[in-house]
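Aggregate trends can hide what the representation actually does to any particular protein. For completeness, the protein is quoted in full, as a sequence line and a line of structure tokens.
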Amino acid sequence: MRHRLLLAPTLSLLLLTACADPGGIAPRDSLRAPPPLRLAAAQAPWPRADWWRGLKDAQLDRLIAQGLADNPTLHLAEARLRRAQALAGEAQAALAPQVTAGGSMVEQRFPANGVYPPPYAANIRSLDHLGLDGAYDLDLWGGDEARLRAALGEARAEAVEVQAARLDLAAAIAQSYVRLADAYDQRDLDRALLAQKRRIALLAEQRAEAGLDSAIAAREAQAAGAALEAALAADDERIALLGQQVAVLAGQSPDHGRDLTRPALRLSAAVGLPTTLSTALIGRRPDVVAQRWRVEAAEQDIKAAHAAFYPDLKLTAFVGLDSIGVGNFLVGSARDYGVGPAVTLPIFDGGRLRAALGAAAAGRDMAVDRYNAAVLAALEDVVGRLTAWQANETALAREQAATAQLEQAWRLAGLRYRQGLVNDLAVLEAEGRLTEQKRQLLAARNRRYALAVALAHALGGGYAPHPAAL
């Protein structure tokens, strides 16, 4: 008892004086609040989790469902999540008592001049051990708990990254599908133009043979027809490649692209913005939420690095059997047991602990900078998509007006032809101008679909995190 009383103040003194100094090392950067946005847009709810159904295409719905089930990229994100969860389980295990069992039976020659007297000296005997060893880290400074919280933060970040991967995949499939729809539209227009150029070439040849015109117009129409035939071949190639791309994104073989039918997209509602955009977007974007969890994990890494500067106290215990010679092993006198504390004191480490704390502080600053950058990128993404949407809506309205005017001009040319005031070439030329204008109109309409997909993606695609993730 007297020895223990003497040991207590000595140990306390060591605890106070033997610790390394963590002073002067701290994070430098801070989280920034998102700036307010002043956007003129129609009010709309946040996107739904199945936002792509707003395009009203059952084939697209099936493709995205297949992709979310079978795409290897998504499986990779899920594997990263499982790994992070396993590492969190490993960190949690450090907070629980640890018990191990061990046993050995070694034939050993004891030296004649060693510590063991005869009859063991200069003879071979069996050195036997069987026992349990236990230890429990009291975690006085919270280092193990901080490491657990850091691992849980990483696991939560990976869980959100899975949602981000799902959103990215659905948006990629939808965007490729919109491009496929546009490729079909452009091929239809090229076919119509080719038929029109062929009729013009035929009429120009007839007029040249009748001496009513030169052969230049016929040659020009034939050249235009040849160029359109080349464009049609390129259209077919584009449709095939986009079909293959959509199939692969959906986790299928590229050959499945041949089985796709023509897209039939239709936007069911106008695009707008939620009223709480500037304050709620950071909790609706999975990429931003994931970065916020990584900031939390990095802050816990700092706490764990701080805890390493202080003494570590463990309770240890052992019980078992130890003997020299098998005949003495399984007897009461072979019992061996003990219990007591074990203290680890960092005294001289060559700067290792300070370097580890510095690395943790820098890692936290990096996580904060990534989060701040992700917030700004998210706001830029939304503003850019909305700006493009509004500009395209204006362009679409003008393209519709121009198409209506050229349709009227084409009808007037047909009327004048039936009255004998113009020849049939004038009608065909008016039809060609109308077809080219329809190309611009369809491009603006398909861009409307693409921008609707992009804005749904920018708004988080229906992701709704747990309140703790905000």
Remarks:
- The chain has nine helices and four strands.
- The radius of gyration is 38 Å.
